[in-house]
Records
---
Amino acid sequence: MKTDRRKLLTALGSLGALGAVAPWAMAASKIKPGANSVLIAVDVQNCFIEGGTLPVAKGSEVVPVINRISAAFENIVVTQDWHTQGHASFASAYGGKKPFETTKLSYGTQVLWPDHCVQGTKDAELHKDLALPSAQLIIRKGFHPKMDSYSAFMEADAKTATGLGGYLKQRGIKTVFVTGLATDFCVAWTAMDARAAGFEVYVVEDACRAIDLNGSLAAAWKNMAAKGVKRIQSDDIQVG
Ligand code: VGL
Ligand code: ZN
């Protein structure tokens, strides 16, 4: 009886040891971005950070997360929301409209925003701590005065391409990891359009922050899941 018990304890001990090994063993199951993967850092600009014109709550928290995981990527693309003055997505362009109300434009319903990310302004610059020196392309979007572009692939009419899809395809990219601001607008639309263009798509949740307007965050995750976008955490990625 006594020895059986000791045997049992020894067996449990080995299980414990196995348990200790588990995190190491699990490293093998992390996602390792390959030469045909790209990291997209969406709109990590002053406008979307505390102190900017359209601040996303805790927006600056994405910066260290994106910087950290960037070491896992050979290919990096950065986007910038890049509006003309008096852009059609600005509430100020319409008499009697306030920010966060909507209006109908030729391509459908447009949320109206405070003036933000105007071309060439400090507000439209990338966050000073975003450290992605190996990024190969900066793609600017939303520059047509009468049309918005949340997505880095397709403008709001769903017909006008930014060129990013062609660029990535010509470079042999198959898998896209989306990070940045804001989860429920530019990140979500970029991720869904990447799927529509045939890429495998991951959104790195803790490398994004949301605006969350009238339930837009929950709706965005639902719509992304329906299109086959995979939701992961930065810790799921093998870095180094
Ligand atoms: C964005 C609202 C308006 C974004 C851009 O980057 O998510 N949101 N313009
Ligand atoms: Zn915008």
---
Amino acid sequence: MQGLMMNMPLLITEIMQHAERVNGQQEIVSVTRDNPRHRYTYREAFARARKLASAVAEWGLARGDRIGTLAWNDYRHLETYYGSACSGYVCHTINPRLFPEQLVYIINHAEDRYIFLDPDFLPLVEKLAPECPGVKGWVVLTDEANMPATELASAICYETLVAGGSEDFVWPVLDENDACALCYTSGTTGHPKGVLYSHRSTMLHAYATMMPDAMGLSASDVVLPIVPMFHVNAWGNPYSCPMAGSKMVFPGNKMGDGETLANLINEEGVTLSAGVPTVWLALLAHLKTSGKTVETLKRVVVGGAACPLSIAEGFDAYGVESRIGWGMTEMSPLGSINASADQKDRYSAEEYSRLRLKAGRPIFGVEMKIVDDEGNELPWDGKAYGSLKVRGSWICSAYFKREADGAHAEPGWFETGDVATIDPEGYMAITDRTKDVIKSGGEWISSIELENVAMSHPKVAEAAVIGHYHPKWSERPLLIVVRKGDGQDLTAEEMLAWFEGKVATWWKPDAVEFVAELPHGATGKIHKVSLREQFQDYSFPGL
Ligand code: AMP
């Protein structure tokens, strides 16, 4: 017998319409190149999204056609998200920090018909455009007064385009399984792979991220999404905030600037924010040097890469709860989150400082397992390491226009490429990327745990550990460190001694090398492939 409930398609169009009706007065604040503090309401945003959609309808695109964006987090990008996807096109967010060859590959592979770009990227686009013949027009996200001079024949001014549209545009009724967004993973080797989200998956993911033990959003929150809208849809914030009715504060191209972030938090009353560890390091460094505080900020979500204890404790000092989240582009992205702060009293200080750094518990809707090399499931005992596999309604079942690869080898599961432990309470801890794990004499050493220990040294600004060739053990850990400005006297002996008693003796790095900076990839993570290349001719001392 079937239930007797209405079968409404789960469309992100509904999020927009709900926000317009119910949270119409709520504010959206943005930093843009033409206005350091643009502000308007959800009602105005979505009226403009309709005007945009009606103007774009004149272009004669087909359902499912891709519209690319090369843009920062701001209100025009938000309008483009909804205006394109809710018209039945696919909003393809492109990471502008990728190499030009990767950008050309992505734009052509996705078959983008139009691309909306921030004026900051015009010089880049002028170079790429001849290699992207499928793109019919380039829409510059600004007004006529600020429109830069360009030789690009097919450049269109965004505000002029919107002005020509009609607010009376009626959104089409789409199938909930229709694609709404596309994002390519910035793979370290091979071509980037496209992850194609549906309206349904995006909606379900947004619901899930709002849960109290996830991001915990409410209408009284003021949310600052620092994580870029080109990196997995800013972890769902452009959908979950209008759903909850939270005020949104977009940092534009100032997302890595600690001073702008601190000012936005204090002036706009930000309560909640999300970003990768690098931006939190920038914010905490600014707070320290300026003496500022962040009184309104209640919680930050730290994800995208392992979070060192120094960030978690750095936020403690300002009364801000930090929650580590784990996920992937392929997972929309949220898979797990660590909300253990609420249960801190159950643990000793030492246990808690270990627990809080774990990637957290799976959120409802994401199923996880860890398996050994033969695919046998491993116990959730907090000790067994295995390859992490996931499944759920917002996890990709295949890559866009690509043959199935190893990641989908087991039917119904996605292999994340991460190595993890899961404890009896469901706390998952990432110990490595499969490719980064260090195998010493056949035993695994977690590079992330060693990095966490190194990062807790007061003179260390950033640290990475790679497995390096060793004639006896096949690989041993090599620690590479960037010293803090005032920690230039840190010696190799002092650094290595820091590991005593903190990790098993045989995990201790064999050597440490100091560098001025570490290579970072397009999403701000340490690029270990480059680091391994950089140190390929290195020999451990005494060998
Ligand atoms: P991306 O698809 O670019 O978001 O990258 C996803 C990958 O980032 C994951 O597979 C992990 O290797 C890494 N990652 C994300 N969150 C965390 C975390 N909290 N701790 C450790 N690694 C993480």
